[in-house]
Amino acid sequence: MNTSAKSQQFHLPDVGEGLEEAEIVTWHVAVGDSIGNNQPLAEIETAKSLVELPSPYEGTVLEILAEPGQTVRVGEPVVSIGTATEEPAEPAPEVLVGYGPGTSAPARRRRRQTSQEQPPVARSVQPNAARAKPPVRRHAKQMGIDIETVTATGPYGTVTRQDLLRHADRATDHLPDPAPMAQAATRPDNEARRTPVTGVRKATAAAMTTSAFSAPHASEYHVVDVTRSVKLVGQLKTHPAFGQSKVSMLLPVARALLAAVSEHPAINASWADTEILEHPAVNLGIAAATPRGLLVPNIKNAQSLTLPSLARAITELVDTARKGRSSPQEMTGGTITITNIGIYGIDAGTPILNPGEAAILCLGAVRRLPWEHNGRIELRWVTRLTLSFDHRIVDGELASKALSRIGQILHRPKTELLLT
Predict the structure, then answer these.
(1) Percent of the chain, pLDDT > 70?
(2) How much is the pTM?
(3) Which residue in 28, 217, 279, 391 is the catalytic one?
(4) Does the annotation mark 239 as catalytic?
């Protein structure tokens, strides 16, 4: 019995708190594939992390509605799936504006191509008949390509992103050699590099702009002799309790910040228009530079962790972030943050607050400098700490007390304090 499959459209869900849109990174399935319930369909990039989309249905992929690189808003359809018990039908070709009628007769099911089969044959596109989805058209415009001159190989004669790249390569191959004096002016290398602002970078830009212009920032600096902390880090690296965890100066700094928050809890707070919310738990954010941009995942209830547990949590959090696998839960709910610019050899900076938080601590480079110690000038390990804070919530006295306490702990770290 040859019947059409019942089509189920899968709409982009909100995979994170407050998500409005996401970019399709790659599809794990193709039209004609049989899929099971919860099988990964695609990988998407949200404003906070890379996320795999599982299928809510069991059946056959009828149509993919969003291309890799395309930004889709929450609630918009991304794929059409036919139920597994019915014969899936080839979907009607998507009708773009000005390209014919809105309906057509059902087409035969397209057989999935195997490795032995030949690749699709390119179809020549006549002038004024080129068909492409909006992201491809925008890409063609950025490349300076007349899309009506591109040979299409996509379904139903559509122009794909790969078609644009092949067209550009062929055009470059046939360019005449430029005159020596004009060569520099005609080289593509001299053109501005265009990078679409999407995903993490787009979210970071919006968040930092909002933070910078909504919260009155203030900063304080503290130069500290951390020689004892440096020695402690060296001892902890070989301690069995730390196993495979990465132990660096970030660890005692994080523990010192947690100790300061326990003594001055008002710094672990948020501004809520008519009231200040003082958080009972410290969800410690760790700013991590990743290939996708700056991420600030956080460790929930960090104040309850022992030093070895804190080391493991920081190591796992940063590794996961750099792989683009931070969960939405790790990316939301932070209460205070640490950023470490010292790993780049930078002495100090004035970081912008993570939105919704009252303070952020910046760790600068740890250097050997001449320093007065016990009445003599010696080479000591020294660093500069910067505390940026929301001046609506944290006044100068509170900020000074918290930063001073952090410095005291790092100057004279007590193993019994850090290990508890």
Answers:
(1) 75
(2) 0.62
(3) 391
(4) no
